[in-house]
Amino acid sequence: MERGGEENICEDQLIQAILNGDREKYALLINRYRDELYRLVYAILRHPEDAEDVLQEAFVQIFLSLSRYEGRGLKTWMARIAVNKALDYKRKRSRGKEEQLAAEGRDDFGEGREPVRDAVGENVATREQASLVRKRVEELPAAYRDVIKAYYFQEKSYKEIAEETGLAVKSVEARLYRAKQWIRRHWKEEEFW
């Protein structure tokens, strides 16, 4: 394919190449939709650093879910994942405010809710990259590794993880947050794409 043709590659070819392990095509996919998805996420969160963090999570989710994409509007499908991630993040932040109000003796918001998230299952885009992700997860510190595996691979809720580990739900949230921060500091994005 000619260099100039990279921009014109159709979505089906792009997805198939990514599923076959072509890291450059995934970078092309990210570059193609990054700005638009960032604007969507930023419109919800209104904070540049939060929007950037959430967008990174969305791209990981997109990659892990790509094998389940049904071929009906890639941009719309990716946007839905990014928006859901942003809404999840916003809900978590709101839940923190609810807990603060509850601690102050006010219950203005009612019960907290578990975040809505796209399922991350065993059907990842490629075996090679799934193997790499799992190998890298094994390198995480034990406290982070266990919650990452339970939340992302086993699709357990914060409450389920808390019950199994004997931790408070807030502690599970904190460990997941710290695990993501650790991953951002220690993993290089290009290792996976």
Topology, element by element:
Blueprint: H1 11-19, H2 23-45, H3 48-65, H4 74-103, H5 127-138, H6 142-153, H7 158-165, H8 169-186
Helix pairs in contact: 1-2, 2-3, 2-4, 3-4, 6-8, 7-8
How would you characterize the overall build of this protein?
The protein is an all-alpha fold and 193 residues long. The protein has two domains: 10-125, RNA polymerase sigma factor, region 2, helix turn helix motif (Rna Polymerase Sigma Factor, Chain: A, Orthogonal Bundle); 127-193, Arc Repressor Mutant, subunit A, CATH 1.10.10.10. The protein has helices at residues 11-19, 23-45, 48-65, 74-103, 127-138, 142-153, 158-165, 169-186. It is globular.
Descriptive keywords:
Rna Polymerase Sigma Factor, Chain: A, 2 domains, 8 helices, 67% helix
In short:
The protein is an all-alpha fold.
CATH class of the largest domain: Mainly Alpha
Count of separate structural domains: 2
- The CATH topology label of the largest domain is Rna Polymerase Sigma Factor, Chain: A
Mean pLDDT equals 76
Structural shape: globular
Mind telling me the CATH superfamily name of the largest domain? RNA polymerase sigma factor, region 2, helix turn helix motif
The counted number of beta strands is 0
Largest sheet: none
Please identify the structural class as seen in this structure.
mainly alpha
Helix content: 55-70%
The CATH level-2 architecture of the largest domain is identified as Orthogonal Bundle
Low-confidence stretches: 1-5, 106-126
Q: Roughly how many Å apart are the termini?
A: 20 Å
Q: Quickly count the helices.
A: 8
Strand content: under 5%
Rg from alpha-carbon coordinates = 18 Å
| SSE pattern | HHHHHHHH
Domain RNA polymerase sigma-70 region: 29-95
Domain RNA polymerase sigma factor 70 region 4 type: 133-182
Family: Belongs to the sigma-70 factor family. ECF subfamily.
GO molecular function: DNA binding; sigma factor activity
